[in-house]
Amino acid sequence: MFKWLPHSKRLLWLFVFLALPCIVFAFSGQTQKDREKARDTALRPSHHSGLPVVGELVRQPEPPEEHARRQLKEQWYRQTTSLREIKDPGQLVDGEMETVNLRFIDTMEVRESTAPQSTAPRGLPVWLSAVVIGSILNGEAFVDEVRTGVYTDYKVKIVQILKDSTATLYVGSQVVASRAEGAVHFPSGHTTNYLIEGMGLPQVGSEYVLFLSPIPNTPEYEIGTGYELKNGRVYALDDENGSANNMDQTTFIKQVQTYIAQQGGTKP
Amino acid sequence: MKCLRFLLSIVAGAFFLCVATPASLAQCHQPTTIAISYTWPPNNLVAVHEGSVPTVPLTTAMNNWNAGLYSTFDCYPSFALDSGTAGRDIFMSYAPLPPPPQCRPGFICFTRGVTDLQNAKFLSGRLSSVNITINSAVNANDVVMKPDIPANRLLAGLEVRLQDFQNLSPLIFLRVGSVNHRICVRDHFDHVLTIRTANPDPGMTRKGFELLEVESE
How many domains are contained in chain B? Predict the structure, then answer.
C-alpha cells in the first residue's frame, strides 16, 4: 500500500494520519474546557467570588440549641431578604442536572440632608459592628426551614481585628458569617445555585477583610462585604466595589483603619 | 535534509495542537460578562403585563424607554402593555420588598425591585418571559428628587426627564434590555445628570450594577 508514492510523501501521509487524532483530541478537549469555564463563570455571582457551597434540601438533625439559633437567624433573614420559593424542580431542567437561579436586586440610597453622614465610602462599610481579617475555614449551605431562602454559613478564623463594637471577638477565635446565597442539592438529584448578581461568595481557604454585621440574638454575623487578600493585593468580593481590585494590601488595610478611626471605632 | 526539516515541523505542529493550544487559550483573560441568556433578543417587542403595578407610571416608563433609549440609542427591546412579540413577556407584580441590609449612616436605602430568574423562561438562548417584583413601598416622594434638582431637567437632549425615570421603579425591568452586547441601564442617566448638573451634591446615588457587558452572541 502507498508503495507508488515516493518515500518522503509516504512519511508525510503517515504523520498527517498521526496528527489527525491529535487535532481532534485537542479540539474536543478545548470544547470540554470551554464548557467547564462557562459553568465556572456562571456559578460565580461576582468576578472575584468563590464557588457556591452545595447543601442538601433535607437537613441533618442538629442539637436543640443550635436549631433554636438557626431558627432565629432564619427569621431574621426572612425579614431582611426578599423571599423565594425553594423547591425541587425535578432531576432535569432544560436537560441539565444543575441550574443557576440568578436574582437581580435593584437598590438605591438617598442621602438624608439632616443626618450626620459617614465619610467612608459605601464600599468600606466601617460603620458595621466588626471589621476583621479572617480565613475562611469552611462553608455550609442551608435551606430556610420554611423553604423561602438559601444561605451559606462560613466558619471564619479571626486573624486580625480592625474593629469590634461587640467586644466579643478575639484573634484565633472562630465565628460564623453568612450570605444569603448558596446551592441546594435536591432529592431528585438536581442542584440549583441560588445567587445574587454581583454579590460574591467567599472562597474556602482564602483570607479576607470582612465587614460584618451581627445577626440579632445570635453570636453570628452577616457578611456586609469583603475583600480577598491574595499575593499582597486585594480583590473585592462584590462587584460594586471593584474599584479596589488589585490595590496593594497594606495600603488598603491602612485606608480601612483610617476610616475606622474617623468613625470613632477601635483600632487595635 | 529538507525532508527531515519538513517532518520535524509537522511533529512540532502536531505537538502544538495537542498540548500548547488548549493551555494557552485557557489563560485568556475572561472579560466582564453576564450571560447573554439573561437579555432580550433584539428586534423584539416585549409585552409587559402590569399585574398590580400602577398603570400610569408603568406606561410612562415604557414610553420613555421606547422614545428615548430604544429610539435614540437602539437599546433593545421595546415594550408595550399586554401585547408584543409572541413569547416575550414580563409579568410584573407589586409587593413590599425589604430594604438592603447594609445602609450607610445618614442615608435611607430602598430596594426598588427584584428580578428573579427562578421562573424565567428562555427561548433560543434568550429571555422569553420573566417575573419582576416592584417594591410597592417605593414611591416618588421616597426616592425621586431633592427639591434643588429641577424636576424637568432634560437629559442629554433626550427630552426625557430624570424624574420620569426615577418616578418609576418599574424601570428595574429595563436592566435586561441589551444593545451591542451591552446592557442599557438607567445608570447612564444618573451619571449624565450628576455630571451635567450645576449642583455639586447630586443628592442621590444608586447602588447596584454598573454598565454590564453581555457575552457575545
Answer: 1
